[in-house]
Amino acid sequence: MKIQSRRAVIVLFLLGFFIFGIVFFVSSYLKNASTWVFYSGNKHIYKNGRISTGTIYDRNGLTLFSTEGGKVKYNSDKTIRTAVMHAVGDSEGNVSTGALYAFKKQLSGWNLVNGVYHGNGSGNAISLTIDAKLCAVAYEALAGRHGTVGVYNYKTGDILCMVSTPSFDPENPPKVDPDSEEHNGIYMNRLLSSTYTPGSVFKLVTLAAAIDNISGVTDRTFRCNGTLKIDGGKVTCPSSHGKQNLSEALANSCNTAFAELAIEAGANQLQAYAQKAGFNSVMYIDGIKTAQGKVDVTAASKTDLGWAGIGQYTDTANPATFMAYMGAIANNGVRVTPKLLLNSKSKQTSVLSPDTADKIKTYMRNDTILNYGERNYPGLHLCAKSGTAQINGQQPNAWFAGFLDRKDCPLAFVVVVENGGAGSKVSGPIAGKVLQEAVKTYAGKM
Ligand SMILES: [Zn+2]
Predict the structure, then answer these.
(1) How close is the Cα of 253 to the center of ligand 1, in Å?
(2) What are the transmembrane regions (predicted)?
(3) What CATH class has 46-129?
(4) Where are the domains of the chain?
(5) Contact (Cβ atoms closer than 8 angstroms) between residue 361 and residue 160
(6) What is the pLDDT of residues 269-299, one digit of tens each?
(7) Span from the CA of 260 to the centroid of ligand 1 (angstroms)
(8) Suppose 138 and one of 13, 163, 227, 266 were both cysteines; which one would form an S-S bond, judging by CB atoms 3.0 to 4.6 Å apart?
(9) What's the CA-to-centroid distance between 445 and ligand 1, angstroms?
(10) Which pLDDT value is given to residue 303?
């Protein structure tokens, strides 16, 4: 009896140990399998450290990346390869926001139950929302300057154009010198991952706060003599705009009028409307996280609040998030989150009342007619706002953002050229070129 019970204890102990082992293995598998499978030593997915599985198409079925027998191929056109490099990614995985890295699960066909299963040994195919030819137009329009161009459908969320410069040909990756100006942030997708001082494009946030919180503001007259004195501080305007109504103040991009509006709406409202516009939060574009633009006026003096209302002070903006705010104004106040996978669904968030969105839209349309010139944007029905964001000791960043007020071609956009100079002069023509091309291809077909 004694021996038998001792044996039973040993068996029970071994059994317990065995069960513990199984539980440990299964839980580790569930927790870590997706990390294990994407170790660069996995020869099913990587060859010599390069991703060697899957196919990536643009929205029109153009092949951007493919693998044949473990050999990696990009599009045959060098300009297209370079223009879509940040969207597709490089095979070394340096561009962490690129499809090759961000969608590697879909590309490899890997899942928890079946593991890496490739029917024909070349992984899965995914289709991106981008139009590679449109990206090439944007890349050429940037003409070697550093910056970004984004265009998206504000009804469906499809990103048609996503270009960031500097870029490189993924078939011949350069030896990157991180200290050189030429390669500054070359792996970063500036649309998704950068933040810049917004300057005057931020007036579209202050405008929303003012319309909703200052009674009679749309019928008011503003006077600008070039300087607004505030409690010992001041906000200055590049010129003295004289007498203007709210719509003219936006078209003049009058600093003193908008500083006055920010102060009158108050810090709490400016903060709240900045959050509604997407500041202080990130967007997830099919799981790819954007950088966070920031507005914090909680401890701002009156003068600082004035400067914050015109996109200076400590304000920073992420271009993709700002583009989505443009989309919300165009789309009756409903923001459709941009997306990159053709078959995914977008999140919709109401950020402005339809009435407020409509008023801002009218003013932005007026801005194009009075200021940027219809002849520069013929037939687009463009609503826009420029920004020339001052940064200490450098040429300003040139912003141009807005949308087409067209049911047959519902596109919102953003263009930023780093240290480019005046927003409407530098970034406006880039937007014009890309949007004309988009209208030619898609009007009536979206
Ligand atoms: Zn002024």
Answers:
(1) 7
(2) 9-30
(3) alpha beta
(4) 46-129, 136-442
(5) no
(6) 999 999 999 999 999 999 999 999 999 999 9
(7) 11
(8) 163
(9) 42
(10) 96
